[in-house]
Every structure is written in structure tokens, then in C-alpha cells.
Please model this.
Amino acid sequence: MKKLILSTVLLFLLAGCSTTKLVYDYGDKYVSWQLDSYFELNDEQEDWVEERMKIHLEWHRAQELPRYKSFLTDIQNSSKDGLTMSELDEGYSRYEAKQRRTFERLIPDAALFMTKISREQINNLERKMTEENEEMLTKVENRQERIQKRRDDFLEQMEDWFGEFSPVQLAQINQWQTEWFPESDDPIERRMKYRLKSQTQLLSLLRSTPDNLALEKWLFRWISRWDSNENFERKARILRNKKRILQVDKFITSEQRLQAIRELDDWVEILEQVIVNH
Model:
């Protein structure tokens, strides 16, 4: 569910304006297609999903995109003279609030949808989950390849935002790679453990023929675990990442900082065009 929601409402962050418009014009079809791959929807279910997603996507375009634009503009302004921990705290809180608003809007319909699926569709879901889990386990087995890809992706993202680095900077990035991504840190294994537990709970709940209120309660509880104050491991990970951002912020040159701000200009322009053409 998380993958479906995020891939639908945040896909515009991955492409240019023309593709962004397609997401909002055809996102209902995309979600229906994704859900069909898990449940094998009947015609009535497809129509219902597409109708509801059109409404949610229009809400997101009208209500959330202006907030995203304001968020990016504020990041530009605050980062011109360097970042502080308090600015990162505020920005992250705003980001999480945006996620919560989207989930809170979609969960009632997600729960209602799941009250209408058949036993066979639940079995289809379980088979699809098993296939995806096997793919993830393959990634877990290829540990060295995964670690190297993680390092390559990190450097590529840094260059996308800041441009070329000097030899001295590249040496520093390599040192950070060793410190930040040790072999002992394996997020896929951590996610896999949580994934299997959640899937077992969800399948058991669905087979108990719950009403939509019970499903809503489970989904809200599932999502609240991500940002729970009791999730100390997650809080520590977020704090660690904020400290890394501050390290990078002090490491880049003024020209590299300016390039990153220009990159944000492109995203602000994309959002403006999609909002105006609503």
C-alpha cells in the first residue's frame, strides 16, 4: 500500500512537467493497474478504484502541490547561507506532515476497498507478496553488489545536485562512504523483517472478514509506527541523517550550493505549471 500511494502521488518528483501532468491525468489508471497485479480486480472494482483515485489526485494537485511549492521555496531561502539543525528539524516536520495528510485521506478508501475483496483475491495478494519477498531475498544474498550500488547511487545523487567534485572532495566522499555505509548496516534485512511481520498480520486480518473500521484502525496503526516517538531506532536514524546533511552542507563550495538552488528552481517551475494548468 505504501508503495502504491507514494508512487502515485509523489511520482511527479521524478520527472519533468509533461510527465507530471500525465501522473495527475492518468494516475487513476496506474493505481488500478497496480492493484490488479495484486488482486486481479473485477470490472466493478476497477471502476470504483479509478473513480476514487481521480478525486484524490485532484485534491492532491489543488491542495498539496501549492504546499510543496512553498516548501521548496523555503528550502531555497534557508539554504542560501547554509543550513542549521533547527532548519532541518522544521523541514523534516513539514515533510512528515505532508505524508500524513496524504495517508489519512487515502486510508478510509483503502480500508473500504479491502472489505470488498474475495477469498481468491486475498490468495492472489499472498502469492504476489511471496514473489516480491523472494526477489528481496535475492538482493539480501547479493550483499557486496548491493553495498557497491548504494555507494554508486550516493555519488551519482551528489553530482546531480552539486556538479563535479575536486579530487580532495572525492577523497572526502569516499571516506564518508566507508563511515556511513559499513557492511554491518543492512537496511534491506531490517525492512525484510518488518515487511514479513506486517504481511502476516494483514493477511490474517483480511481472512477474518473485518469491517472497514477495523481495517482503518490497523492501517493507521501500521503507518503510525513509522513516526512513533517510541520508535527509537528510527529516531536515531533520522538524527544521524540530519547530521550527515549538515556535514555535506559545510563541505560544498558556494558555486556548488548555487547549483543545488538552481536545481530546486526547476522543480518549483514544474509545480507552478502543473498548478496553473489545473
